[in-house]
Amino acid sequence: MVLQVTGLRKRFGRTLAVDGIDITVRKGSIFGFVGPNGAGKTTTLSMITGLLRPDAGTVVVDESDVWRHPSDAKRALGVLPDRMRLFDRLTGAQMLYYCAVLHGLDRETARRRTDDLSRTLALEGSLDRPVADYSIGMIKKVSLAAALIHSPRLLVLDEPFEAVDPVSTAQAIDLLRAYARAGGTVVLSSHNMDLVERVCDNVAIIVGGTILASGTLDDVRGGRSLEERFVDLAGGRSAVEGLEWLTTFSD
Amino acid sequence: MVDDVLRLKLALLASAFRGPRRLARTGIVAGLALALAVAMSDWATAFRPTDADHRAGLIIIASVIALALAVSPLTSGLGSALEPRRFAPFPIEARPLALALALASAIGAQGLLTAVLAIALVVAWSGTAALATAVVGGALGAVAIILAGQILVAVAAQLAVAPSTVHTVTFFARGVVLVCVAAAITTALVVERGRDTTQVEGIAVVLASTPLGLPWAAPGSDTGAVWARLLGGLGLVVALAVIWQWLVGRLLEAPQRQRWMGRKRGLGVFDLVPATQSGVIAARSILYWTRDPRYRLALIALPIAPALMMIALAIAGVTPQYLWLIPLPVLALFLGWFSHNDVAYDHTAVWLHIAAHVRGASDRWGRAVPPLLLGVPLVVLLAPVFAMWSGVSGVEPALLGISLGLLLTGIGVSSVSSAAAPYPAPRPGSGPFDQPPVTAATAGWAQGLSMLAIVGLMSPSVVVAWWGFVDDPEWLPIAGVAGAATGVGMLALGILVGGRVFRRRAPELLDLVLRN
């Protein structure tokens, strides 16, 4: 087991954002974390990665508790959080170098890995521009590179493919698969069910702060498509009512 | 052809009045130009042609203003739409283009001020026998200024391809203009007092024989010298015109210089710091202090507080000389205090430090580097100067020690407060005057208490310095040593404590910025 989460709980004011979540992710798997908007995905992933302090529960990464022995756990973790800034006045190259050195890499290694990652993720042409000038998709790519640069054991990616073009997505997926084959582990969240079905071998569906289904992809789908199963669990489609005016066109 | 280019120039001038930002900029430039024009005509009407010192003053002022005007096109960056190179794609001969561009460049602020300068020369000599010489000299001088300005822009635009070089050129040109204007004002004041002007006359004689002063020195010289100077001025104009035409022809054909892009990229400041956590954080901080408008504004505003204090105290009747003891400690205090909310300025980007589990002290050290790098040399260099101006004997060690102490204590206190009591700050990318989306009551407390803490910790040394000042100068060196020692101690303590607080509270800091 590379990641073991037990009884994770977080309350914001009156709303219980995450209500007792348990997850185990085994080594070498690509674990998909899906759920509707506001289901608690980002909150859960932030607590797993040591960015948000949980009210209760434990997170163990590679046998170290993230909240009790953070330095060991965080060395094993590569993080791509959703909607958090980078130091965007740095250029892409400076940004990657910065992350690498913060994680303890030496100058030569940091530079070599920056080159390697930028080649794989097609970032080469943009490395000398400030990150502030990047598109959202480019920022996701440079963030992915930043998460990978210290070769962590566990990658936690929150919406890694949002706004990333299909070519770069395919390339990033190849990269993640190779990483998993070599013994790395990936936890990623996404709204894109097709993508999750394509990439992940294990999934968990989170709704309203609790996990409603979890296991291998085939177990969770139960013979249907993941999207159908997901919509079912998320409360089904509500019938479209009260929009009759939408079918009476104005001209 | 010529009228096409002139029309283009007029359209460009009109565009300077479009949009509030450009309008504001144009307003500033126009205001400065107007002030200069008024000053020049004022001086011209008050001119007494018979006085040798007046004539010397005129030569110096006209020469330095001419230099300022020639350099002035460089001050607005090098994006001039009327560089010769821009016309390279069109089938235009070099000769008419050179003429058209020179004429077009005479329209605008530079041309207007040049005309004012030439007219001022004529007005100054009106009613004397030298009037005709003044007309010819003024015209030659004006043409020379315009041509020289065009040549400078064309050469600079060809050579300065990297943005940083363009910045340097612009900055340097602004410096030259400022120095020239200051020199003109000084000369005017010296001549106005009219006491000892032999030095002014000496400078004028030298200037009168250089290309810079030739046309302005012509009126009022002896007959032989008049001809020599006018012919010299004519030669200057012809030479400039030939260079200009050759340059235009050259630029139409020569390839644009490319910025060399090597495979091995440099990382700027990051190449100069050690590859450690505190090293890269320091490099990142330096970049933000120099590039981010939120930090830059503070740096610009920094000298204002001491200046205001000096004015207030001067009005209150404090001996003016003693006021020189004020600026440096106040500047050091504010510079140290400035980073008391540094973490909030990172906004959510601070997650990178949390995810990498950066050592607290490394984070604090890195952030302390820019104010140290700026403040320590400033204090060390300026303390002797201000101490000398104050005229208080033996005050230098105290001024040095107290200022250093305030700076270092300030950085130490900021190290703790930015981790312990951050409050919402303007977001990255927003202007320095933008308010944060949420203003918190904690802001006032954090600002006030951190300031109070710095002053409080330094108060023993300041009190000792005060004794030295009013009572016994023996205390002054003691105050200096005490101040510096307090600073070093508080900086070390602040980084240690601030580091521990930062590491413990890191997720809460992130939570705080996420909420606003």
Shape of chain B: globular
Number of domains of chain B: 2
The oligomerization state is heterodimer
Which pair of chains has the greatest number of interface residues, and how are they split between the two chains?
Answer: A-B, 38 and 33 residues
Reported CATH architecture of the largest domain in chain A:
3-Layer(aba) Sandwich
Question: What distance lies between the first and last C-alpha atoms of chain A, to the nearest angstrom?
Answer: 62 Å
Question: How many structural domains in the coordinates of chain A?
Answer: 2
The class by helix and strand makeup of chain A works out as alpha/beta
Strand content bin of chain A: 15-25%
Unreliable sequence segments of chain B: none
Give the spatial strand order of the biggest sheet of chain A: 6-7-8-3-9-10
Which of globular, elongated, flat, extended, rod-shaped describes the shape of chain A?
A: globular
Could you please say which CATH topology of the largest domain in chain A applies here?
Rossmann fold
| H/E element order of chain B | HHHHHHHHHHHHHHHHHHHH
Mean pLDDT of chain B: 85
Which superfamily, in CATH terms, is the homologous superfamily of the largest domain in chain A?
Answer: P-loop containing nucleotide triphosphate hydrolases
Outline the structure in words.
The complex is a heterodimer of chains A (251) and B (516). Chain A has 251 residues and is α/β, with parallel strands linked by helices. Chain A is built from nine helices and ten strands. In chain A, a hairpin with a 2-residue loop joins strand 4 (56-61) and strand 5 (64-65). The N and C termini of chain A lie far apart (62 Å). In chain B, helix 5 packs antiparallel against helix 6. Chain B starts with a helix and ends with a helix. The mean pLDDT of chain B is 85.
